[in-house]
Design a protein that fits this description.
This protein has 214 residues and is of the alpha+beta class. The chain has two domains: 146 residues, Gyrase A, domain 2 (2-Layer Sandwich), CATH 3.30.1360; 60 residues. The protein is 45% helix and 18% strand. The protein is built from ten helices and six strands. The strands form two sheets. The protein has a four-stranded antiparallel sheet with strand order 1-4-6-5. Strands 2-3 form a two-stranded antiparallel sheet. β2 and β3 form a beta hairpin. The longest helix is centred in the middle third of the chain and has 20 residues. The radius of gyration is 22 Å and the shape is elongated.
């Protein structure tokens, strides 16, 4: 699994909207000329208000829904099936199995790592490669359909995914301790590479249950 090309957008608009309810724009102190990991370096007043709104609950931290995030995620099908739970407010463009599956020889690095060295699995890859070659050489649609049907759930697919900070907060609250190690990698990457994630997205230890019931 791999996550690359993380970008964030609209911090300025989100922080401006955050101050609309009390018309407190004069207290905003973020200098947009200074950048922190792709986001503006928040002033202490803006940071303090943001944290108070976050801690007050989802009905108050609406500004998190206006901070947008985009990233490229390469992950196995079995992980994507779980990730697809999070559909509201998200968009994803994926690599096309229909249009590209037959264009490259099938190799172990197209699958999630733990099974790459397994002899039985390597033998199965030979079978998939045979189906692929048959389709390339004969255009036999049945061979292509069988190839698609037989792809293991460890097949890696890349999607460019777009969401927002509130969605990432929900995901990381619910999945940080999941038994699939891919979730640990996802949450660790968000924590380390998304600006202000440790404050805006992740919940202090021991408070996860309160968040889930809000």
């Amino acid at each position: 699994m791999n996550i690359t090309n993380i970008e964030v957008f609209n911090f300025k608009g989100a922080l401006r909207g955050m101050r609309n309810p009390l018309n407190s724009h004069s207290k905003s102190d973020t200098n947009y000329g200074f950048i922190y990991h792709g986001a503006p370096l928040l002033g202490p007043n803006d940071y303090d208000l943001a944290m108070r709104l976050i801690n007050a609950g989802p009905e108050h931290r609406k500004f998190l829904r206006q901070i947008f995030v985009s990233m490229d995620i390469t992950a196995p099908f079995y992980w994507w099936k779980e990730f697809d739970t999070y559909k509201i407010g998200t968009t994803a463009n994926s690599g096309s199995t229909m249009h590209t599956l037959h264009k490259e020889s099938i190799s172990p690095d197209m699958f999630e790592t733990p099974i790459r060295g397994d002899k039985e699995f390597l033998s199965y890859l030979d079978y998939l490669e045979k189906l692929r070659k048959e389709y390339v050489e004969t255009k036999n649609v049945d061979a292509w359909k069988q190839l698609v049907q037989c792809l293991p759930s460890s097949w890696l697919q890349t999607r460019t995914w777009t969401g927002n900070y509130e969605i990432l907060r929900n995901i990381c609250t619910q999945r940080a301790h999941h038994k699939l190690t891919e979730w640990h990698y996802f949450c660790d990457t968000i924590k380390e590479q998304v600006p202000y994630a440790k404050d805006f997205i992740f919940i202090p230890e021991g408070e996860e249950e309160n968040e889930k019931t809000n």
